[in-house]
Design brief:
The protein has about 300 residues and is an alpha/beta fold. The chain has one domain: Metallo-beta-lactamase, Chain A, CATH 3.60.15.10. The protein is built from 11 helices and 15 strands. The strands form 3 sheets. A 7-stranded mixed beta sheet has the order 1-2-3-4-5-6-7. It has a 6-stranded mixed beta sheet with strand order 8-9-10-11-14-15, with no helix packed on it. The longest helix has 24 residues. The N and C termini lie far apart (about 55 Å). It binds zinc ion (ZN). The site of zinc ion (ZN) has 6 residues, from loops. Pfam families: Lactamase_B.
Length: about 300
């Protein structure tokens, strides 16, 4: 299938075709003795992911595990549907996200507040998963991939309080979710992902440092794809966080409202990203969808307000 790319080590990248776009959200299949899907994509992507798994020879009873880096709807919105297609699969998620997969009502209500009418076309609706099938991860944990291979989970908050990174013992691949930002393979651009309500700078930087300390061979971004240059890329992740926080802090201290702050930060960061200068408007649009300035700036503003409330 043209949305499945072999990455070596029995790992397959699946373009989930989020909201009809290509190259926005990736899921990954690790095809060992115990096949494991990392990230489901959105609910509306679930049939696309199922077709990809079928093309790789994974039938309804074959999928052993579904693991999500965190429960944002672009990563985990399809969990309920995928759990339905694959009745033997165990669903693995950080303990702070587990109850929302069993009962998505609060998560969906807050997503509705953030996205409004766009919720349905972008994400669809997260279906509940039987709590008995969900395994919650603590600060560290493990997913058995079969044949002595495992996926080790490492708690990595900052982007979201229920975020984990996942390290493959056979390949050294690290599934970074959104904790290292959003990477655009066509241009090599990398932007932070700092949405409300959980963003916290030091926590996010600590998670990037933890990723470096794990010594991965390759980073697998959910947005989007593999990156082999680990050290430089993680340095870039940390730099991007600092740049966006510095600019937003400046806007915040000048008392700008969100719209003005977004415009200022967007203008001052524009030249950092070749996607924004791209002739190809679709590339810029995709980048904005993934890690939009409004979402990033409001997440940082929200954090600055919280910090101020704690230390007036
Ligand atoms: Zn996220």
């Amino acid at each position: 299938m043209d949305n499945v790319t072999p990455l070596g080590g029995d790992v397959y990248e699946i373009d989930t075709r989020m909201a009809g776009y290509s190259g926005v959200t990736a899921g990954y299949l690790i095809l060992g003795d115990r096949p494991c899907l990392v990230e489901t994509g959105t609910s509306t992507s679930a049939p696309v992911v199922r077709d990809a798994l079928t093309s790789l020879g994974v039938g309804p009873e074959d999928l052993a595990t579904v693991v999500v880096t965190h429960i944002h709807l672009d990563h985990a919105g399809g969990v309920g549907d995928i759990a339905g297609y694959y009745p033997s699969a165990e669903i693995v998620v950080h303990e702070k996200g587990a109850r929302h997969l069993a009962d998505p009502s609060r998560l969906m209500a807050s997503a509705r507040m953030v996205w409004g009418d766009k919720l349905d076309s972008l994400f669809g609706s997260l279906a509940p998963t039987d709590a008995a099938r969900i395994r919650a991860l603590g600060d560290t944990g493990s997913v058995d991939l079969g044949g002595g291979r495992e996926l080790a989970s490492h708690y990595s908050p900052g982007h979201a309080k229920h975020h984990v990174g996942l390290l493959d013992s056979a390949t050294g691949d690290l599934y970074v979710g959104d904790a290292a930002g959003v990477y655009l393979p066509e241009t090599g651009d990398l932007r932070p992902a700092t949405p409300p309500p959980d963003f916290d700078l030091q926590t996010a930087l600590d998670s990037v440092a933890l990723f470096g300390a794990l010594g991965p061979q390759r980073l697998l971004f959910s947005h989007y794809g593999p990156v082999a240059d680990v050290a430089t890329t993680l340095e870039r992740s940390a730099d991007e966080l600092r740049v966006w926080v510095d600019l937003t802090r400046q806007a915040h201290s000048e008392g700008m409202d969100l719209d003005h702050a977004v415009a200022m930060v967007r203008e001052k960061t524009r030249e950092r990203y070749s996607a924004m200068a791209s002739e190809n408007e679709e590339t810029a649009e995709r980048f904005e969808l993934l890690s939009g300035a409004p979402s990033n700036v409001s997440g940082i503003m929200h954090w600055l307000d919280r910090t101020k409330a704690r230390n007036p």
